[in-house]
Amino acid sequence: MDLLNRDRLIVMVKVRHGRGDIRKDGDYIVVFTEEPRENGRANADVIRQLSRYFNADPSKIRIQRGKTSTTKTILIED
């Protein structure tokens, strides 16, 4: 689900293992990453991919919920 406010976008994300790809799946955006889930590497790759997908500065994207989960709530600020 994408919730748009004039200053932010909230995106529900599912993270899956695979070659860097982004797909829409119902209310979720599915982000595929080959990075391991250790030391924040997968999360950093998810943020990097979302920044390209939404054409946003990576510093404006943060994981609001689900840092250790495969389902995340991502906040993208303007």
Structure description:
Helix content is 17%, strand content 46%. By secondary structure, the chain is α+β, with helices and mostly antiparallel strands. The longest helix is centred in the middle third of the chain and has 13 residues, at 41-53. The chain is globular, with a radius of gyration of 11 Å. The relative contact order is 0.25.
Topology, element by element:
Blueprint: E1 2-4, E2 8-17, E3 21-25, E4 28-33, H1 41-53, E5 61-65, E6 71-77
Parallel strand pairs: 2-4
Antiparallel strand pairs: 1-2, 2-6, 3-4, 5-6
Tally of strands: 6
Broad shape: globular
**Share of residues in helices:** 10-25%
Number of helices: 1
N- to C-terminal distance? 18 Å
Using only C-alpha atoms, the radius of gyration works out to 11 Å
The multimeric state of the shown protein is single chain
- If you average the pLDDT, what whole number results? 92
Largest sheet composition: 6 strands, mixed
Computed structural class: alpha+beta
Report the β-strand fraction as a percent range: over 45%
Q: In sequence order, what are the helices and strands, one letter per element?
A: EEEEHEE
Low-pLDDT stretches: none
Features of the shown structure:
78 residues, alpha+beta, 6 strands, 17% helix, globular
Structure described in brief:
The protein has one helix at 41-53; strands at 2-4, 8-17, 21-25, 28-33, 61-65, 71-77. The protein is α+β, with helices and mostly antiparallel strands and 78 residues long. The protein is globular, with a radius of gyration of 11 Å.
